[in-house]
Amino acid sequence: MVNPLIGPLGWGIFLGFFIIFVFLGFYGARWRRGDLSQLHEWALAGRRLGTFLVWFLVGADLYTAYTFIAVPSGVFASGALYFFAVPYVATTFAVAAVTMPVLWRWSRLRNYVTAADFVQERFNSRLLAGFVAATGIVAGFPYIALQIIGMQAVLTVMLLGIVKNVKLVSDIALTIAFIILAAFTYTSGLRGATLTAVFKDALVFLGVIAILVAAPIAIPGAFSTAFKAATLAASTTKGLLVSGVDFLKPPFYLAYTTLWVGSALALYLYPHAVNGALSSESDKKLALSTALLPIYGIALALLAMYGILIYGDTTAMKILSLFPPAARGSLVIPMLAVTTLPEWLAALALLGVFVGGLVPAAIMAMAQANLLVRNIIKPLNPRITPQGETRAAKWASVIFKFLALGFVFIVPATYAIWLQLLGGIIITQTLPSVFLGLVTDRLDKYSLMVGWAVGLGLGIYLFVTPHIPAAMSPLYPIAGHLVYIAVIALAVNLLIVLVGTGIAMAIRRGASVSVSK
Amino acid sequence: MATETTRRGVATWRKVIAGILFAIPWIFYLIPTYNTAQPTLGGVPFFYWFQTLWLLISSILFIIAVLLLYPGKR
């Protein structure tokens, strides 16, 4: 067994600040008081958040364990390819700044809470709305699961050398954390999530900047050393950092581009992103805070580079070598925090990653619950009261959280990450109904359904079928170049929607001509 | 139902310029001029630091675009 990385001081600070986090979560119910038995009060914080609160909330909501764990892990293992996350977050907010204020205006006018609410009225189809809602709910699960995996990585580093059975103790700790989380989202709704989001963002920025400042002290030569060490590692270990260290190797260019384009188009189709956007007080404030969100991405870019920086940190690399190669990536950021920072600062950075998983998990489960209640339960049971709706959503958000937790306990981490990638592919197939729906109401609803179904089927088929580079890879070779499957499936989906709408228009015109004769 | 969203009377030139500003980062990242190691900044290859710098540039472009689209509104 190795020596503990975090001692009593670190644990004390971690737990002490976690208690502040919990307090903020519960205090949310009293903050800017509203009637929390109304769904828009509970789930959208009464649509009263200004530019900066929306910035903190949506920032905390979108920069998740994916940012702190999956991206650095990808750069650490595969190299430059995973830096696609940077163009992704630079461009996704252009999409959002154009689409979300329009959706916000509709929602304010018609009291929508979800994107599927909009689709239902826009295309006069509960079935299409149900499909959009179900896609959002399904895609949400592996995203929550990914948050939990990030939190596990923190606990693994903190418990190392302290307890024998790290897995068991971290599972118990996660369960306790989720019970607390479920309790405060039940009582405070999005208000609790907003206050904890500000707290989370502060800790994350502190951690990212602290590592940046401390790295040259802990690692002589910092990035220069690290990039040289990574190049050396890539040349000696087969399959490591295959996409390039200093820059992207040419065969990966199309993969890089389609990954960021596909991800940028998909982000604001996720229910938790829409949920955050609709909580804004006005369309201008929403647009402004969205325009400011790429700045939050600078933290993401630094974290991604830390996936290379760790190669220069001999202490961290030595401890990582105790773990199986597949498990090392997700430990990159927690490990760098403990090896480069003084203990008290490391504890705060670790708490940042830990609550960085909790806050988005809360918002994701709430957004899933809204979809379930508004677009699946309500159409089946139209007599549900507004209070009954909210009660159902509160309980559904609790159940969804524990389903995701159970999922992580049962399914190995690798599968959870695969399913998260698959979630990205399927959520993209709702783009025509939601984003094109914001532009025009002339699309044919049956074509939208067929396009969605074919896109979904094709995406899943390409993902699971054995192919190069591997089955369960989100990339698929087309004419010798790797392409992100979400983009392939979306192209087919869009083609069906446009051709189908054209045919439907022609038939309708033909019918009206024959009637007028 | 379709008239509500188009009711905001924003001048066309504002929409066009805002559209161009929103599109600039897309165009920048689509053309891989950033795919090289030199010059480095603090030991970090050009590929990494230049794309990161463009996060800041993107934000500035988007803020100008939003201010153009919502003149005088709160």
Which second-level CATH architecture of chain A applies? Up-down Bundle
Report mean pLDDT of chain B, rounded to a whole number: 88
Low-confidence parts of chain A:
none
In this structure, how is the largest beta sheet of chain B organized? none
Percent of sequence in beta strands of chain B: under 5%
- SSE order of chain A: HHHHHHHHHHHHHHHHHHHHHEEH
Could you say what the CATH topology of chain A is called?
Sodium/glucose cotransporter
Quick one: how many beta strands of chain B? 0
Commentary on this structure:
The complex is a heterodimer of chains A (517) and B (74). Chain A has 517 residues and is mostly helical. Chain A has a single domain, classed as Sodium/glucose cotransporter (Up-down Bundle), CATH 1.20.1730. Chain A is built from 22 helices and 2 strands. Chain A has a two-stranded antiparallel ribbon. In chain A, strand 1 and strand 2 form a beta hairpin. In chain A, helix 21 packs antiparallel against helix 22. Chain B is mainly alpha-helical. The longest helix of chain B has 24 residues. Chain B is elongated and about 50 Å long. The two termini of chain B are 25 Å apart. The interface between A and B is large, with 49 and 37 residues.
Task: Spell out the blueprint of helices and strands.
The complex is a heterodimer of chains A (517) and B (74).
Chain A (H helix, E strand, L loop, with lengths): L7 H20 L11 H6 L6 H12 L2 H14 L6 H26 L4 H8 L3 H34 L6 H23 L1 H29 L3 H15 L16 H14 L4 H8 L4 H27 L4 H7 L4 H4 L3 H9 L2 H38 L5 H25 L2 H15 L3 H9 L5 H20 L10 E4 L2 E4 H32 L1
Antiparallel strand pairs in A: 1-2
Chain B lengths: L11 H19 L15 H24 L5
Helix pairs in contact in B: 1-2
Features:
heterodimer, A: about 525 residues, mainly alpha, Sodium/glucose cotransporter, two-stranded antiparallel ribbon, 22 helices, 2 strands, globular, B: about 70 residues, disordered N terminus
